[in-house]
Amino acid sequence: MRILIATLLIVATTGAASAYCVSVPDDQSSAYVRNGLKKTICLNDEIADRTAQQNWQVEVNTALGKLDRDFVNSKLDAIRPVVIPDPMKPGWP
Q1: Which of 23, 30, 45, 78 could be 34's S-S partner, Cβ–Cβ 3.0 to 4.6 Å?
Q2: End-to-end CA, the chain
Q3: What is the model's pTM?
């Protein structure tokens, strides 16, 4: 199960490369601001994509941690002796 999740994690994180924000010189006809606006929007989109990817990574790491904790707890439960109360012995001192 963990191998499957780890494989899915590797496949999902090797997706498309992040946006490449090209900077081309502005000219007087664009009032020298059009390129700055396009680059700002591109960088904002790149930040949003990275944030979404990091949030997803945190969710996956949390799920893997829970699976690992549950697995360890199940192993501990398997080796922990079961205590059966003695019906002939009173439960108070």
Answers
A1: 30
A2: 48
A3: 0.54
